[in-house]
Amino acid sequence: DSGVTQTPKHLITATGQRVTLRCSPRSGDLSVYWYQQSLDQGLQFLIQYYNGEERAKGNILERFSAQQFPDLHSELNLSSLELGDSALYFCASSLLQGNTEAFFGQGTRLTVV
Amino acid sequence: DAKTTQPPSMDCAEGRAANLPCNHSTISGNEYVYWYRQIHSQGPQYIIHGLKNNETNEMASLIITEDRKSSTLILPHATLRDTAVYYCIVRVGNYGQNFVFGPGTRLSVLP
Question: A97: which chain B residues are within 8 Å (Cβ-Cβ)?
């Protein structure tokens, strides 16, 4: 158990819909990262937050957005969903922005039908 | 883009040491080498990281060459549960830097 909690574990929704994925980082961790992993694809970095502020952006679509709240949990919002958005979405957290390891949650499997 | 090169796949006999190589010839002086693994579709699992000295923990050893252009992750006694995709990542812990995952090495531990 990495200490990072992601909910829900599974989500099935229709095209055009909007969903919210939630991530609770390890206790004390200030940095949160979001990654997408499509079927048989690598892990693609989406976005990073540090203590509530956006720090880095990867290949995140405009239909996707995220935020980190004062209690440090984070949410990833996916809207106008398409079939191609079906993927595993992972959240990771780390203590600092420096050279500390990040720990990953078990992911949310999103299926768009 | 990933800054590392790893073999796409490797086999290892159960109980033997698994030595996973990684080339990072363009590594900068302040970049660390991290290793993660992913078993099936689980979340990536942190294994070990280091700057220039060899490192060892309860899971593995990390050997970094003196010129830091390559490293080897050693699983001393591989078990079937070590079958996974192993990722080597170089990263500077600066403001806004994330972990860039390449395709990794698919390690199969064989009985």
Answer: 93-97
d(CA B38, CA B44) in angstroms, rounded, equals 4
Residue B93: is its pLDDT beyond 60?
Answer: no
Residues belonging to chain B with any Cβ–Cβ distance to chain A shorter than 8 Å: 32, 34, 38, 41-46, 49, 51, 87, 91-104
CA distance to partner chain A, nearest, from residue B46 (Å): 6
Tell me the per-residue pLDDT of B17-63, one tens digit each, with 9 for 90 and over.
Answer: 999 999 999 888 888 899 999 998 899 999 999 999 899 999 999 99
The pairing of strands A87-94 and A108-112 is antiparallel
Residues paired with residue B10 on neighbouring β-strands, in sequence order = B107
Q: Which residue has the tokens 């949650």?
A: A105
Q: How many residues does chain A have?
A: 113
Cβ-contact B55, B61 below 8 angstroms: yes
Burial class (CB in 10 A: 0-12, 13-18, 19+), A22: middle
- Over chain B, what is the mean pLDDT? 92
Q: Nearest chain A residue to B99 by CA: give it.
A: A45
Q: Which residue has the tokens 């989500």?
A: A11
Nearest Cα to Cα of residue A25 among A112, A91, A111, A99: A91
Task: Quickly tell me which residue has 């992911």 as its tokens.
Answer: A107
